[in-house]
Amino acid sequence: MLRERVSNNIYVFTSELYAQVTAGAILTSDGAIVIDTLPFPVETRQIVQFLEERHKTPVRYVINTHYHADHTYGTSLFTHARVISHRACLPLLDTKGREGLERAQRSSREMATVRLTLPDILFDAGKMCLHLGGFTLEIWHAPGHSPDSIVCFAREDRILFAADTLMPIPFFSDGNWSDYVATLESLLSETFENVVQGHGEVILRGEVPDKIREDLAYLRSLRAQVEEIIVQGAGVEALAMITLESCGKSRIPLNGLVQQLHRSNLESLYRELVEI
Ligand SMILES: [Zn+2]
Asked: In angstroms, what is the span from residue 232 Cα to ligand 1's centroid?
């Protein structure tokens, strides 16, 4: 696990075991807020040790930015924390999340100790503000990557924890293309000091608008090309001709995993558009 200090009191932890997934922590005089966890217990335990043993800062809140396994499997390791999520996260975690964990436990011994923890503080529309030790975390719904995705904004430091709303390529096969575009457009009107992506490197202030515009261009180019295939009456196999490069993205990030995500995007958008 890699650890990076992005401001005086804010740290980002990046998994070295799975797809550069990130977790964040805000340390305050009244305890810590943890934003997402890492999928393998061995790495989340290092976060617990860093905060609670080294910094003597108990974790008061864990935020689940969405129900996906790679962000939520570590929640139960923060034994005294309240868990916050969007209202849509709880039923998804309790159904799809639970089934996924059972599958993971059958195939991976490292997952044997993972216990599903359901969020106990839920919010719905608007902005939720969490005040702790002089810090303010604003949290709001940002659907697109998944129906329950949220983003968290550390107001004093102007750091956005974008979760999987920002990652090397937008990935929406469990979400929705139109929601994703609307969410990204809404982020363009804000200024951020740093943006912590759900996977991959922290984005610095000057790079943020270009990154968001590049993601919007990817989504629009992908849609235009899928629509063209449908209009031409070409079958689903024609999707293979729509490359990441043709949508303005590189195939290198996340050790090439982005190619798999891109293929899933193509297939789900094709299905969605053909069904209309
Ligand atoms: Zn996700």
From this structure: 33
